[in-house]
Amino acid sequence: MRRKPANRISRKALSVWRIKGMIETSLLLFILVIAYFFMNDHPLANMVMWGAVTVVLLYGVARVIIWPQLRWKSWRYEVFEKEIELLRGIFIVKHTLIPMTRVQHVDTEQGPIYKRYQLTAVTISTAAGVHEIPALTEELGSSLRDQIAELAGMDENNHE
Amino acid sequence: MTKLQNWPEWMKTTMSNWKKLHATSIPITFITRVKEFIIPLFLSFFAGGAGSSFSFSRWLFPAILLSLFIYSVVYWLSFRYRMEDDELRIKQGILVKKNRFIRKDRVQSVDITTGIVHRLFGVCKVKIETAGGGTEPEVELVSISLTEAESLKRRLGNGERTDDSKEEQEEEPFTSTFRYRVPGRLIVASGLTSGKVGLVFSAAAALLSQVDQFIPQQFYEKTVGTLVAFSTAALIIIFLTIAVVAWGISVIITFFQYGNFEISKTEQELTIERGILERRQLTLQLERITSVRYVTNPIRQLFGMWAIYVDSAGGGSKEENLSTILLPLGTKKDISYVMEHLLPEAQFPDHINKLPKVAARRYIFRTSILWWVLAVPFLFWVPNGWLYLLVPIFFTYFGWQRYKDSGCLFNDAHCILQTRHVNLSCNVLPKRRIQSLTNSQSLFQEPKKLYSLSAQILATSGGKTFLIKDIDERQRDDAVDWYIGNLRSSKNE
User: Fold this and answer.
1) What is the C-alpha radius of gyration for chain A, rounded to an integer number of angstroms?
2) Interchain CB distance below 8 Å, A83 and B487
3) Start and end of every YdbS-like PH domain (chain B) (predicted)?
4) What DSSP character marks residue B386?
5) Nearest chain A Cα distance for residue B208, angstroms
6) Which residues are CB-contacts of B238 (< 8 A; sequence separation ≥ 6)?
């Protein structure tokens, strides 16, 4: 087995993912509540309703309690001189290699929740797609972005 | 024009070199727009026809038509283009002025189409694409003269003869180093064996199912009655007739689309010309090709026939799933002959590394499980349901075949991923065109130490991913070493 990439993402990712999980779950519950008002009193409809509520609650538990922990554990990355390695995934563990010469641009991205936790995501674009390293602290994120930009030689016009 | 004074001096002096499109662009744009607006036009036509009074809906149809026509005229009036140094410049628009500069070295493909209407006036349509996703070409010159198109193509091409435009007069100024014409019988054969039969057949079936609504009830009952009397034999004959007709139609379509198929190579440029009525000429840079795919379906495989597809950042056509057909059909010998001249390093591989034996069960499982599950109700509730067992048995065999056909190989500059869904596809990807490489392992693959490997390249539609499932650990390591090991040792791309 090869050595795993060295770096983990910020622990604060857990909080962010939990909040996102809660928002998702409450949205789903909200939809169910609305659906409830439009439903008739048929016993079968009630059963379906309670079934749906149970499913949503189970989903919520998974999303808020279990999934963030597993997800955080699975995420690793490392930036080398010549390539970037990303490792992530719970059921399917994905290991991606992006050569520096293929990097077209790097960005840092920050949504409202990330901002609250002073986190940022680094997105790495190649000609064929975008890869993201989520939840890095702001300082680390921007220094990583600059590091990749420099390694990829963005000021020189050496790639298409 | 108010901004003119801000423009550099050299630009002002050459303003008069801006060229207009050919006047035929008016009717051609008009026809294209009408085609695009066919549904609203259709609706407004009937809306107008139904109301007898002098009403708004009556005028809708002519109003739409008229505005489309005005649009076409204005489009022609406002559109200007020119070649300046190594750039193609385009300005268009009345309210919103759009200027577009395209550098020669960014051009991925030049696509010259001569439709029937174009041919009447000796003009053609030119599409120019640069890298970057999207199905719409960067530049579309609706109608320009053939000589103009030829000179434009040459000036956007590989830098030969950029300044002398006198040579345009010659009909065929090519100095092709290689030229190959696909024999007509192979085009017919490709029509006979293409998957289009199914498409045409289902279209025919859909049409028939619509038609029967318009047939008078009585007639319908009579014929159906007769048919039932004729029993299944007659139905089968009718069915077969439709199938044969659909087959014939698909051959004819293929023949018109791909007839007179010619491949030629000039320096590093690849030109593909094809079509009987509508002639399409596509020019690609050979070194910018991002994948070469050798594809065959079970029927073609029986005859040892393959097709070659290529991907590039631009130039793919919709009917070819945004790829380009390089060779519609050919034997292994034809293929190696053509590729030897075009891309010798991306030849069809002699051998590939097969997948590990443990992968076989997963391939069979994935392919046949659904059909085995479906067998349960058949066995229990359908009389003679055991006959159905032939279906899952077939898919079990098919899964095994898929396993046997899959494999990978990593040589100096290319990786080869060969997979089969229904079609067998041998994908040759240049290393310097692979944008990222991902290997993954699912929970089910873990105990067997199997991995999936996917490589991402740039194609006309944007990113395109090639995936092979269930390679073993050694193959995975080979892939990673092949991809970045070399990177670490050699400095330049």
Assistant:
1) 21
2) yes
3) 76-155, 261-334
4) G
5) 41
6) B227
Q: Quick check: B227 contacting A, CB < 8 Å?
A: no
Amino acid making up residue B281: Q
Alpha-carbon span B150 to B202, nearest angstrom: 40
pLDDT-based confidence at A20, cuts 50/70/90?
very high
CATH number (2.30.29, 1.10.10, 1.20.1070, 2.60.40) of A76-151 reads: 2.30.29
Chain B, residues 115-174, CB within 8 A of chain A, namely: 131
Cα gap A91→B312, rounded to integer Å: 34
Within 13 Å of residue B173, how many CA atoms lie on the same side as its CB?
A: 14
Give the pLDDT of residue A131: 95
Who's near A142: CB < 8 A, 6+ residues apart?
A: A108, A120
Beta strands in B267-304 (DSSP E): 269-274, 279-285, 291-296
How does pLDDT run across A83-125, given as a tens digit for each residue?
A: 999 999 999 999 999 999 999 989 999 999 999 999 999 999 9
CA-based R_g, chain B, Å? 28
- Using one digit for the tens of pLDDT, what is the confidence trace for B321-370? 778 899 999 999 999 999 999 998 898 998 899 999 999 999 999 999 99
Q: How many C-beta atoms surround the C-beta of residue B459 within 10 A?
A: 24
A128 and B436 within 8 Å at the Cβ level: the answer is: yes
Under DSSP, the state recorded for B349 is P
Cα-based angle B292, B294, B298 (whole degrees, multiple of 5): 155
Burial B212-238 (b: 16+ CB within 10 A, else e): eeeeeeeeeeeeeeeeeeeeeeeeeee
For chain B, the structural domain boundaries read 184-258, 289-355+406-489, 358-403
Average pLDDT, chain A: 89
Helical ranges in chain A per DSSP H: 12-37, 43-61, 67-74, 112-116, 138-151
Complex ipTM value: 0.86
Alpha-carbon distance of B396 to B323, in angstroms, equals 31
User: What's the predicted TM-score (pTM) here?
Assistant: 0.81
- Cα B239 from Cα B246, distance rounded (Å): 11
Of chain B, the end-to-end C-alpha distance in Å amounts to: 45
Single-letter amino acid code for the residue at A122: V
